[in-house]
Amino acid sequence: MADRTPLVIDTDPGIDDALAILLALASPEVDLQLVTTVHGNVELAQVTENALRVLHLAGRSDVPVAAGAAGPLVHPLPERAGHVHGAAGLGGVELPPSPVPVDPRPAVVALAELLLAHEPGTVTVAPIGPLTNLALLLHVFPEAAARIGRVVWMGGSATRGGNVTAAAEFNAWADPEAAAAVLGSGLPVTMVGLDVTLPTVLTQAGIERFRGAGTVGAAAAGFLRQYVDAARDRYGIDGVCVHDALALTEAIVPGTLGTVRREVVVGTTLGAARGQTLVDRRTVAEHGVAVAETVDSEAAVEFLVSRVCSYGD
């Protein structure tokens, strides 16, 4: 494909993060050029190792991995998500180590250099964890941040409440100050929140299709085993919500999700509303954040499954 969109994934793998990376690598519409890691589901050293191993699993150790922020901008993170993703982040699956070491550059430096090497407006950045790295980029390298073509963030919630507190979705809650900085920056942000990710469920039948897709598909099915148990306990569903993979689907095929521009404010006070993404749905904003409000869940899941199954072709 001649006009592949340069893509950066900023991530905290994480089971659904791993699935999102595999989806991006299987998609000819995009060219994954950099993975940056951030604190979130588990500790930074572990998510960085996980990113390296997932790329190696897919045969793409050529994609550099740069480690980013080890914690939030202001307040320490009260808890991580090892109870959902497993202590090491990949549902207890032990992938072979990558022969390639982590990139020596800090994530924000690697990201800034990549953005400055491309024409303005051509690079899509897909943060699927807390927004700490992107907030740091805005502060340290604003001229590079201004060159981003599109930010597609998995995070927040307009109408569904939270999944880590009554008010907050995990990625927003993990660094509300960073989320406030990025969503209020004027960057072209699409917010792919719980409103569209919770209805998008990969069923056991879809996971079984992975098992026939070679080593990569079998590993993906293995990641998801623990995730299925966590989703059953939390949501009462027999499958998994593919949060991060849905954001990557929108990054790969813009317009997959129905979006409306809204003003979004992030709660940064300490207390029950910390990390809440307060979306003003009364009016359509002239600028604001493109908030994903509608999804064809069946089509999105089929897109994911067919792309991951292509590893077995």
Description:
The chain is an alpha/beta fold. It has a single domain, classed as Ribonucleoside hydrolase-like (Inosine-uridine Nucleoside N-ribohydrolase, Chain A, Alpha-Beta Complex). The protein has 13 helices and eleven strands. The strands form two sheets. It has a nine-stranded mixed beta sheet, sandwiched between helices. The protein has a two-stranded antiparallel sheet with strand order 7-8. Helix 1 runs parallel beside helix 12, helix 4 crosses helix 5 and helix 10 packs antiparallel against helix 11. The radius of gyration is 18 Å and the shape is globular.
Shape: globular
Q: Using the CA coordinates, give the radius of gyration.
A: 18 Å
For the record, the count of structural domains works out to 1
Structural class: alpha/beta
Any guess at the CATH architecture? Answer: Alpha-Beta Complex
Using DSSP, what is the number of strands? 11
Low-confidence stretches: none
Counting DSSP H or I runs of 4 or more residues, the number of helices is 13
CATH superfamily: Ribonucleoside hydrolase-like
Domain Inosine/uridine-preferring nucleoside hydrolase: 7-300
Keywords: Glycosidase, Hydrolase
GO biological process, one term: purine nucleoside catabolic process
Organism: Klenkia taihuensis
